[in-house]
Amino acid sequence: MTGRYDEHDPESYERPRRRTRPRTKDRPTYDDAVPAVVVTVDRGRLTCLLSEGPDAGSKVLAMKARPLGRKGVVVGDRVRLVGDVSGDDGTLARIVVVDERVTTLRRTADDTDPVERVIVANADQLVIVAALADPEPRPRLIDRALVAAYDAGMDPLLCLTKSDLADPADLLAVYRPLGVPYVVTRRGADVGEVRERLAGRTSVLVGHSGVGKSTLVNALVPDAMRSTGDVNAVTGRGRHTSTNALMLPLPGGPDGNAGWIVDTPGIRSFGLAHVDPDRLIHAFGDLEELTADCPRGCTHGYGEPECGLNEATGDEAERVESFRRLLASRDSTDY
Ligand SMILES: Nc1nc2c(ncn2[C@@H]2O[C@H](COP(=O)(O)OP(=O)(O)OP(=O)(O)O)[C@@H](O)[C@H]2O)c(=O)[nH]1
Ligand SMILES: [Zn+2]
């Protein structure tokens, strides 16, 4: 794109004509718009937290402004607000700018919603929460979540819960060749190690019902829910009435940068149909090197006779096997 900048940039070839008109008429600059981050979305109403200034962290309810058109705004989006940004009851600010997204996490189309959608923007870590027992861990599901993380450009973290019920060794052995970072935890345990992993990052928590996600979120953000009736402090809504993602700032941290978590009660599966093998292998530099001489169009999957990955031996062969298992999980319907 950079090489063709001059040719295609209207600013450069239309300059003589445009100079006759005041620039601000063409494109408002929104100089006085206030930066904020979207923490939850509920039927067209977006709850934002201000990012800067003396009121940083305060909550403002907003709606999309007309110039954004049909562009979706999702949890994690960095936005700019105009209008009443006081956050007072009954006020509604307008979102006039959505910053370019660094990452996007998508969920697949399903029976209730035929469209594949971006659910979280700008998160950099995907925390795959799985119970060691009750319910039994489902490696296929973990594999699919890993593929979604690598494809979205997010770092995965395996978070194994209920360590009072079963030993993590067998499950960890499955993910060792891939070098997936992990934490093991249980209800009531010190969550210091989990906190360290979350510090300074925006982490999306995924995991199916019953794995202990709420228990973990409550341990990490003690005031996220009031004990009576599970009403969320940020939205004022009951958690269980909502299937929307919710982003919460983590408390504390000596540098004030403890990170954010995004709880996603709604995700049942990820959109993996579009995942390109070359993008996935990019997350594994050593394997990517092996594919340098692959024939054109090689999928690097099982049964590719001339794939460079077939040359791997020893530990690397184990990594290749695990990588190919992930690749194959794209087509799995197990979720
Ligand atoms: N034995 C044991 N049980 C746990 C642990 N953590 C959570 N539980 C129990 O597991 C059940 C599910 O925990 P939740 O935290 O509600 O799980 P969740 O993933 O949020 O489930 P949903 O709310 O259905 O999405 C509850 O009965 C918890 O008390 C743990 O470390 N050990
Ligand atoms: Zn190949």
UniProtKB/TrEMBL annotation:
Q: What is its EC number?
A: 3.6.1.-
Listed InterPro entries:
G_CP_dom (IPR030378), P-loop_NTPase (IPR027417), Ribosome_biogen_GTPase_RsgA (IPR004881), RsgA_GTPase_dom (IPR010914)
Q: Which domain of life is it from?
A: Bacteria
Q: Does the keyword ATP-binding apply?
A: no
MF-aspect GO terms: GTP binding; GTPase activity; metal ion binding; rRNA binding
Q: What is the main EC category here?
A: hydrolase
Principal localization? cytoplasm
SUPFAM superfamilies hit by this protein: P-loop containing nucleoside triphosphate hydrolases (SSF52540)
Query: Which residue windows does the record flag with biased composition (Basic and acidic residues)?
Result: 1-15
Alphabetized, the UniProt keywords read: Cytoplasm, GTP-binding, Hydrolase, Metal-binding, Nucleotide-binding, Ribosome biogenesis, RNA-binding, rRNA-binding, Zinc
Residues that bind Zn(2+): 294, 298, 300, 307
Q: Name one GO biological process term.
A: ribosomal small subunit biogenesis
Show the HAMAP family listed in the entry: GTPase_RsgA
Q: Which protein family is named in the record?
A: Belongs to the TRAFAC class YlqF/YawG GTPase family. RsgA subfamily.
Subunit info here reads:
Monomer. Associates with 30S ribosomal subunit, binds 16S rRNA.
Q: What is this protein called?
A: Small ribosomal subunit biogenesis GTPase RsgA
